[in-house]
């Protein structure tokens, strides 16, 4: 299991005159063994698409929330204000959970992580930034979905 890389030119870029800038996409699977690869590519990221399996969500909810929390609190993501899109895959399946359900469950799990990690002294937290950023981000997401 490894990440996939590709570069391509957007159709809108092809129509422009002058220098055409390709988009570089890196697909890093959510397996724990590949987390170091994510740390390697995040500082260069202009955006993150975090994919959640809507059909098999409950069995992977804690792991997904933990991975999302780690991604959202990385210094490189916070400092550069990297846009994060949470994408629910397999929503066309009959047994898939709704995006609203997934959003609420992820928020609950992330809040659990925040509370437990806030209890740890700041001296013990490594490579994490102010968790207030995460709170503002969640409020922003809530405001846009209402």
Automatic annotation (TrEMBL):
Cited Gene3D superfamilies: P-loop containing nucleotide triphosphate hydrolases
Localization terms from the record: Endoplasmic reticulum membrane
Membrane-related topology note: Single-pass membrane protein
Cellular compartments per GO CC: endoplasmic reticulum membrane
Transmembrane segments: none
Keyword vocabulary terms for this entry: Endoplasmic reticulum, GTP-binding, Membrane, Nucleotide-binding, Receptor, Transmembrane, Transmembrane helix
InterPro entries: P-loop_NTPase, SRP_receptor_beta_su
Molecular function per GO: GTP binding
Primary subcellular site in the record, as a coarse category: endoplasmic reticulum
Family designation: Belongs to the SRP receptor beta subunit family.
Protein name per its UniProtKB record: Signal recognition particle receptor subunit beta
Organism name: Panicum virgatum (Blackwell switchgrass)
